[in-house]
Please model this.
Amino acid sequence: MILLTGGAGYIGSHCVKRLMSKGYEVAVLDNLSRGFRDAVVTPYFYEGDIGDRAILEKIFTEHKIEAVMHFSAFAAVGESVEHPDMYYKNNVAQTLTLITACRDFGVNNFIFSSTCATYGDVKKVPISEDTPIAPLNPYGWSKRMVELILDDFSKAYGMHYCIFRYFNAAGADPEGQLRERHDPETHLIPLVLQVAQGKRQSIKVFGTDYPTPDGTCIRDYIHVDDLSEAHILGLEYLKREKKNGIFNLGSENGFSVREVIDVCRKVTGKEIPEVMVERRPGDAPKLVADSTKAKTILGWQPKESELEYIVETAWKSMK
Ligand SMILES: NC(=O)c1ccc[n+]([C@@H]2O[C@H](COP(=O)([O-])OP(=O)(O)OC[C@H]3O[C@@H](n4cnc5c(N)ncnc54)[C@H](O)[C@@H]3O)[C@@H](O)[C@H]2O)c1
Model:
């Protein structure tokens, strides 16, 4: 049995479905603070907090957990700047309780959802794992702190970790059963598609004077199902190699905000008005992954991250 935290959320719920389709048994622990009960597709659901030692003991006693996949967190950059207390408590302190329980119950395989936000404003693109770590906000630091905790626990107690630094997770279950539902939504593709749905009047483009070909920021979009597949490969790696790994997960393709909006227009057939506004503080011009390490060491091959397919699956899931 795998314990997956945050399995009522966007990426976690997709990973649960993928794991189950490959024959894995999965238990989900989620406090539903940002997730949805109807996104939990396993019968083994525990509603509770990762910082609650009692519920962790119950789960670890009721099931033989071979690995923890830890997705639960708060994940909005702007909110983390306004409320760092919430982020360090939920993402770091509560996670420490979870990792400590893993140690106490002999659960030695730990897979952690980290982020490219740990790199900050990079000097060199594409971004490989040896890029200096310099988060620009409490969210990025909260993820980095957990990475350091995992490394210290590994050295002291012999646990092993796989850290995945995701780029921009996007797309949805092609069967339309699961979808992206952040509230408030901060991610570009669902925001643009909400305009196509008529739920918003226009999409704001923050900054059109960046040093990129069309002046708007460039990001690397990776399909949630490709992320889920990496988790399965990460689990196999931990069981086989019994050593740690840190891997960037991105498609290695960069798309500008304008290119994303154009693809959304093409897929939906809607006009999608855009409004140009000032740059937001802290947005790097270009973030694109170098995922060579995940490809060579894990054998990961993103197959579902063509931008048009990402938008098609997201659009289908919203309808
Ligand atoms: N979405 C992205 O593009 C992206 C990029 C990089 C990293 N990540 C990371 O991936 C993970 C999943 O992101 P997501 O977009 O699916 O977020 P999400 O908000 O959709 O899901 C997070 C889930 O965790 C649950 N949760 C939060 N705190 C909890 C706690 N203390 N105890 C139990 N459950 C708790 C929420 O209820 C929610 O269901 C996060 O760790 C995030 O930092 C996401």
Residues 2-170+221-249 form a domain with the Rossmann fold fold (CATH 3.40.50.720). The longest helix spans residues 84-104. The mean pLDDT is 97.
